[in-house]
Known about the structure:
Layout: H1 7-18, H2 22-26, E1 46-52, H3 66-74, E2 77-83, H4 86-95, E3 102-103, H5 107-115, E4 150-162, E5 185-188, H6 191-202, H7 211-224, E6 228-232, H8 236-241, E7 247-251, H9 252-261, E8 265-268, E9 274-281, H10 290-300, H11 303-313, H12 320-323, E10 346-347, H13 354-369
Parallel strand pairs: 1-2, 1-3, 5-6, 9-10
Antiparallel strand pairs: 4-7, 4-8, 4-9
Helix pairs in contact: 1-11, 6-7, 7-13
Amino acid sequence: MKKIVSLILVSVMAVSAFAMTACNSSSGESSITPRAEYTREYAGTTINVFNWGEYISDGIDGTLNVNKEFEKLTGIHVNYTTYESNEAMYSKLKSGAVSYDVVVPSDYMIERMISENMLQAIDFSKITNYDLIADEYKDLFFDPENKYSVPYNVGMVGLIYNTSMVDETPDSWDIMWDEKYKDDILMFDNPRDAFAIAQFLLGIDVNTTDKADWDRAADKLIEQNGIIQGRVMDQVFEKMEGGNAAIAPYYAGDYLTMAENNEDLAFVYPKEGTNIFVDSICVPSNASNYEAAMLYINFLLEPDIALANAEYLCYASPNTSVFTNPDYSYYEEEILYPTENNMPKTEYFHDIDPEIRSYYEKLWEKVILAQ
């Protein structure tokens, strides 16, 4: 994402930088004033962070480079790599071929990883900024004792469409099966999100354990094969911003970023319902730099850092220092923070019985092969 930072955010960061001495700036120390205390005991070590693509403020176009600020503050080098889906992240960790200290899965994947002993407990005595996380994002189904995860972002899936290419104002997922837009429709390139769209359209519980329900959803996706342009994840940015596709399902926060680069884009939460999710910061069971991970997690909760990420990513923040800040650019953004009257019907994804999971994963292969 080439996110343009608001003047408000620039002002906030400028004030923080001014609070530091000129000597600090020239010596390469962090330009933020942290709320918590940070040790340099682990300076010279490396932390391996595995996160979604386009999912952290990275210094582009004058934004705050979160990882660089952490390195300046702690002396710990951040080795940062990305993935496009929960399933891709899970497969890489499950292979045992790599070791990461911090990952950011979604709710249902966290639930699965906990059940498979792939995550280790977080030492919350060292996460002193945890009090900034809103209570509504604690005690959730995937981590009911708040042992393994710290909320990072909150979002919902919706329908993005190009008003110069789409004749009507859509309100349903069924437009993604409309022959009129053949070769101009994009679909998710991961099974859980793709199946969910078909399930919402068919009135099926997205966490169903009935194989017949998954069969119906697979048949619906196969119907779509002849009219979609392709299945994408991060490629959706280029496609929709460039006017190379007319319709795509994607995450609400990413729509706001795309809309900055293409004013023809619009967004709707379909009437049948949609997925709501919480992405959270976790520590894999084979992490090699646990103490650095604790520092990094606490750092991501810092008010200046959380604000920089919220402004850059355009996702809803679970951090009270962000969404209660009247200077936050998206303070009243209905897409991110819908009022009760405008809240769409939503469902969380849950981890599913392994037999059913294996079943729908094989169905997904069938959907792909039927193209």
